[in-house]
Amino acid sequence: MTRGPKPKENAVRRNKHEHAQTLSSSTTEGRALPPGLGIKTAGARRFWRTWATSPQAAKWIETDWAELEITVKLVDAFYQGDTKLAGEIRQRVAKWGATTEDRARLRMSIEDQDQDDAGTTADAPAPTTTTDLDEELYRLLSE
User: Fold this and answer.
1) Whole-model pTM?
2) What is the torsion angle, in degrees rounded to the nearest 10, for the CA atoms of residue 90, residue 91, residue 96 and residue 100?
3) How far apart are CA 134 and CA 109, in angstroms?
């Protein structure tokens, strides 16, 4: 025996959230890392480049970019060995939709590009050399 009334045939969900947003999966050009921030580590530069070219950055306003500048300073300090900043960094990036779970909570979805564009990587940023990152992580972990 089931509880409640029988579901209607072809029921339509009407609880779409009014602030839900769909972002394009294509990366944006983003902004260059401001030289005045004094970023020293390759990991922090990679963090900036990742977020500055993310689909979320296409809708950012000045306050969001200012928040990224503050966060990249924290990431720089983290890569220099101040690991107690990890929790603060995680809280900040969650507000931008860093993980699948964060994007679901924010009612943010990213639509896939056509497969035709998948072969072209001319717009992709230059990758950080793995040697730089490996040396940096080795130094961080050996302290």
Assistant:
1) 0.66
2) 60
3) 33
